[in-house]
Design brief:
Length: about 250
């Protein structure tokens, strides 16, 4: 066991296809496996308990609220927050153990390597996609509005340090799944812009920003090097920018 015991925390809803491999890969570094579940209707809870995880059920109230709630339920101060579709590689497991044995500062970032329709994506801005996920919960909190939640260290804390190794992110298994998720997320993103009082939509937002999103990801960030996966990601991401602003423009004012 490391000098600083670690709670691995995962929020779930209907993740029976992913959660077992996530928990199995997290077990070597965890003093506690904690799953905060939003009342799944599949076998998620059953699988978690069979693998030794402690399960707390809590109604979903938004990503920021859910992750702060989950962090607060952990038994240990040092927390590794994972998504159910993420899997620690052996190299990352070793880096986490080393960090816990010689903790520096408030937290550590990990790189995510994403599988898209069976292809590991290394370009287009999708890798290394570093996220602050290993942290001392006394030194920060989850922040954000409706979407794109992030863990932020308190003022005065040193910058987080990068961990070696990847978290394998088992993302979309089909283009259809990507499009369905995009439709949901763009609705949330449009609502977030409305709440921030960013409500003006012009041809710049509907034409130029989607075009730039495609060029930036596919050309400038090398998405073309990932073949069909890179093209699909760039095209659907550009469509997502259009959808977000189209939904904002047509949102009822009341």
């Amino acid at each position: 066991m490391s000098a600083a015991p670690l709670s691995v925390v995962i929020i779930t809803f209907n993740e029976e296809a992913n959660i077992a491999r996530c928990l199995e890969a997290a077990r070597p570094v965890a003093a506690e496996l904690l799953v905060v579940d939003s009342f799944s209707t599949d076998r998620t809870v059953e699988i978690c308990r069979s693998l030794g995880a402690r399960v707390v059920q809590h109604a979903f109230a938004g990503y920021v609220e859910q992750k702060n709630y989950a962090t607060a339920q952990a038994r240990h101060e040092h927390v590794l927050q994972l998504d159910a579709d993420e899997v620690l590689t052996p190299e990352l497991q070793a880096s986490i153990t080393a960090a816990l044995d010689n903790w520096q500062g408030g937290g550590y970032t990990l790189a995510r390597l994403t599988s898209y329709c069976g292809h590991w994506v290394r370009h287009g801005g999708w890798y290394p996609d570093r996220k602050l996920r290993l942290y001392d919960r006394r030194l920060g909190s989850w922040q954000g509005l409706l979407l794109h939640e992030r863990y932020e260290l308190a003022a005065g804390q040193p910058d987080p340090q990068p961990l070696a190794g990847d978290a394998l992110h088992y993302s979309y298994t089909s283009v259809e799944q990507h499009v369905q998720q995009l439709n949901r997320f763009t609705s949330i993103a449009a609502e977030e812009l409305w709440l921030k009082n960013k409500r003006q939509v012009s041809a710049f937002h509907l034409v130029l920003k989607p075009l730039w999103k495609f060029v930036h990801g596919y050309v400038l960030r090398g998405g073309f090097r990932d073949g069909f996966a890179g093209l699909s990601i760039a095209a659907i991401s550009a469509w997502g920018v259009f959808l977000k602003f189209a939904k904002l423009k047509t949102r009822p004012s009341t």
